Amino acid sequence: MKRWLVGSLALNAAFLATALYLVVGAQDLFVTYFVDPGWERRFSFFEAHPIQPGDVVFLGDSITASGEWAELFPDLPVRNRGIGGDTTEGLLRRLQQITRGRPGKLFLLIGTNDLGFGKEPASIAENVGTLLGEMHRASPETALYVQSVLPRAGEYREAIEDLNRRLEGIAAAHGATWLDLYPHFLAGDGSLDDVLTNDELHLLADGYERWRDLLRPHLQSPG
Amino acid sequence: MKRWLVGSLALNAAFLATALYLVVGAQDLFVTYFVDPGWERRFSFFEAHPIQPGDVVFLGDSITASGEWAELFPDLPVRNRGIGGDTTEGLLRRLQQITRGRPGKLFLLIGTNDLGFGKEPASIAENVGTLLGEMHRASPETALYVQSVLPRAGEYREAIEDLNRRLEGIAAAHGATWLDLYPHFLAGDGSLDDVLTNDELHLLADGYERWRDLLRPHLQSPG
To answer: Which of B4, B15, B42 sits opposite A15 (nearest CB)?
Structure first.
């Protein structure tokens, strides 16, 4: 009997470890950048469809990826360069796909997944600074727009506001335009306005309409 | 000791049941159509961006959703109407979003998730017949294209080939054009060619290029 108990307890421990691995999220960085087939597939598509000069690029994570930008801005040469789950680290790995095409404008929205994985605002903002520096170096003619991280579930409020203050300073330091979307998506309790979302993170149609309206003046300008 | 063993075995059974629930997919239909916030978000976007006459609509599941169709066909008024995880049942629930816009062409690729959820080819094909009948009734001027279900992991070969034979007949019965993509994506072992995928289901860039080349003659024709 004792051998059975030891075996069963060991099996329980293995299940528990697997559950923790799957739930807690420490694996997410690994999965995303080393084995996530979804990230690799989007990466391969982007390699096959190079950015062109004059393109308007939307770069980011699932919030960007889920926007049908060609429908939101039907008259512009838009490129959706969002990947679900992406982070500042992921963007650094694929930034050359953007810069070597020398797009006309680049709209960056990144960082909420970094926060979800427990990264500190200071370190996330540092990565964004590296991104902006590299963009400006490789494609100085691209007009850069840094968008503030959107609200999500209320417990993220303090971290997001901290991150956004840092991002605003970094955008200014790199000559990028700061687009403060955040207050336009915020509910009174500090969360993402629930008429704009159904999971406290991603956007329903009304969220994309609001975002589009905020971007429109910057898309009509020459850059 | 015996009580501990019983407790431990029960805990193992609970873990195993949870793992099966999460892996095997019987919950997917429930999640997709009753609580999946991703399906609801895409649905809301599609409601806010109605199809227009003359549009070229790509309708289906994640394989369609993951294509940046505006980049694949930059000169056409394309609409991506794919939703990850969708099935024939899901399409029936959102078909009016398509038909009421009276698009110029509609390219349908659906059924692989139905198979994944254990549906029989006959019942899947019956749903596609309902879809085609409703499309033709509501928007008789739309040119309908039924695409064969793509290969995936080899164990699906028999079911997919059975389903495709049925779909071909149903397309003919409804005056839709049959586009037999299947053989162009097939490897010798009956699976999706592994140069086109990294998960035996979804497409890498080369898969989308192959698909685009097969569609191109039908997109250049008047309909």
So the answer is: B15
Query: Looking at this predicted complex, what is its ipTM?
Result: 0.83
CATH top-level class for A50-220? alpha beta
Q: Tens of pLDDT along B138-161?
A: 999 999 999 999 999 999 999 999
A45 in contact with chain B, both atoms CB, cutoff 8 A: yes
- Confidence category of residue B31, pLDDT binned at 50, 70, 90: very low
Q: Name the residue of chain B whose CA is nearest to A197's CA.
A: B41
Record: contact A202-B37, CB cut-off 8 A? yes
Which of B191, B115, B181 lies closest to B155 in space, CA to CA? B191
| Tokens (6 digits) for B155 | 């164990």
Calculate Rg over the CA atoms of chain B. Answer: 19
* B161 touches B112 (CB < 8 A): no
Q: How far is CA B201 from CA A74, A106, A178, B34, B153, in A?
A: 31, 32, 40, 24, 7
CATH fold of the domain at B36-220: Rossmann fold (3.40.50)
Q: Any chain B CB within 8 A of the CB of A199? A: yes
